[in-house]
């Protein structure tokens, strides 16, 4: 699916640079040169993320961010502010206005894209909102619910209650089933790269997830691959060493 980023920037050269790099990364840019124009565009199509310059003609980026947060339709859109300002006070007023992140000018295109992707991962997990079924589990990202089809009652799925992190973990693993992910990869993909937490945190949440799945006899779907990491597999893996422990 296409991910749309609304770029609100009054300097044509910067707008062009951003636009070019977004396209190169598979994102779809739409551009506005001021807040009024951006408001009209948002009215038409809700973007997945807004990249918002702090210094805009007429109304400032901060004021526009506040407007977006006040409106029910736009209040959850992720916002990244582009700013030449680096002072702490500015950061605080930006955060209060509802920005998710900051990029200070001048920035490298790589950093820009990495920040955008990190915010999208953190704030828009529903970006892939298709229902996934595997190993007798069904995960519905839109409803944020998990169901299990149990042998004793296959026609009526039982809801499986998970904590938010366990949900994201299961969703990620099911979306990439049969593939092995290291703890570091899981941290980056599920927790985002702005958090500084230890690899062990992943183990803790894997344990919690397995504990819930154990109650319905499905804990062996989440497999440890010794020395590497974890995977979701609906094929029973008799050779998995940790299963024998
Ligand atoms: Ca500007």
SSE layout and pairing:
Layout: E1 4-8, H1 12-24, E2 28-32, H2 35-44, E3 49-53, H3 61-70, E4 79-83, H4 88-96, E5 101-104, H5 109-123, E6 132-134, E7 137-140, E8 145-150, E9 153-160, H6 164-175, E10 181-182, H7 183-191, H8 200-214, E11 222-225, E12 229-232
Parallel strand pairs: 1-2, 1-3, 3-4, 4-5
Antiparallel strand pairs: 6-7, 7-8, 8-9, 10-12, 11-12
Helix pairs in contact: 1-5, 6-7, 6-8
The structure holds calcium ion.
Calcium ion binds next to loops.
Sum this structure up briefly.
Helices cover 38% and strands 22% of the residues.
Would you mind describing this structure in some detail?
- The protein has 245 residues and is an alpha/beta fold.
- It has 2 domains: 4-123, 3-Layer(aba) Sandwich (Rossmann fold); 132-232, Winged helix-like DNA-binding domain superfamily/Winged helix DNA-binding domain (Arc Repressor Mutant, subunit A).
- It is 38% helix and 22% strand.
- It contains 8 helices and 12 strands.
- Strands 2-1-3-4-5 form a 5-stranded parallel beta sheet, with helices on both faces.
- Helix 1 (12-24) crosses helix 5 (109-123), helix 6 (164-175) packs across helix 7 (183-191) and helix 6 (164-175) packs across helix 8 (200-214).
- The radius of gyration is 21 Å and the shape is elongated.
- The mean pLDDT is 86.
- Calcium ion binds at residues 10-11, 53, 55-56.
